[in-house]
Amino acid sequence: MAELVLALDVEDRAAALRIAEAVAPHIDALKVGYPLALSAGLSIARELKASTGKKLIADFKVADIPHTNQLICEQAFTAGFDAVIAQGFVGMDAVKACVQSAHRHGGECYVVAEMSHPGAVEFFHQGVAERIAAMAVVAGADGIIAPATRPDRVQTLRQMVGRLKIYAPGVGAQGGELGQVTALVDGVIIGRMIYGAADPAAVARGIRERCR
Q1: Is residue 61 flagged as an active site residue?
Q2: Which of 8-12, 16-20, 95-99, 126-130 has the lowest mean pLDDT?
Q3: What are phi and psi of 89, to 5 degrees?
Q4: DSSP string spanning 157-187?
Q5: Higher-confidence residue: 144 or 122?
Q6: Closest CA to 195 of 82, 30, 51, 1
Q7: Based on the number of CB atoms within 10 Å of its own CB, is 128 exposed (0-12), middle (13-18) or buried (19 or more)?
Q8: Catalytic site residue from 49, 61, 96, 165
């Protein structure tokens, strides 16, 4: 069964906590990106952990030199996150800095191999994505991010990473179809389809059933 990860890209702290608590019984993890982290501060991580008990992924798409990557990841894990998402295009040394920081804290690091929006095919596509996925394996990453909007690409990248985890964003608002990717990935990342619903808990429950 594929895990369900809620991309909690709301900007209001109270709304974020309310939605997270409501959907917690139906999800496996929460992904916090810049919209919420910048508006509410890194302290939101401990609040979400206390109210939901769920795994927290810092989606900061870390993409800098190795030393700066390490500093960013250290801040994320110290704040209470369990995993970070890093970009792979910055190269092996920069990715390894994220992986090493994650593992020092008993956490995980996922590397973006290919993004889910239409513009990703300009650069993050055939050839480049494969190289990033292969690098993630060598760097010791725990998994990669691959696009639910392009299931054929997920299949290709699965061949590159073997048993490493694959989390796939893009179902719902971006047009990805849940039924086309659940058998290919370890988890689906869904945001607006859930947090933008009138009843987020009901929508999350329905998606969770379809992930089985």
Answers
A1: yes
A2: 126-130
A3: -65, -15
A4: HHHHHTTSEEEEE-BSTT-B-HHHHTTT-SE
A5: 144
A6: 30
A7: middle
A8: 61
3-state helix, strand, coil in the chain (%, to 5): 50, 20, 30
Per residue in 154-209, pLDDT tens?
Answer: 999 999 999 999 999 999 888 888 989 999 999 999 999 999 999 999 999 999 99
- Count CB atoms within 10 A of the CB of residue 145: 28
Q: In one letter, which amino acid is 80?
A: G
Residue with tokens 């979400």: 48
Please name the amino acid found at residue 167: Y
Q: How far apart are CA 212 and CA 67, in angstroms?
A: 41
Report the length, in residues, of the chain.
Answer: 212
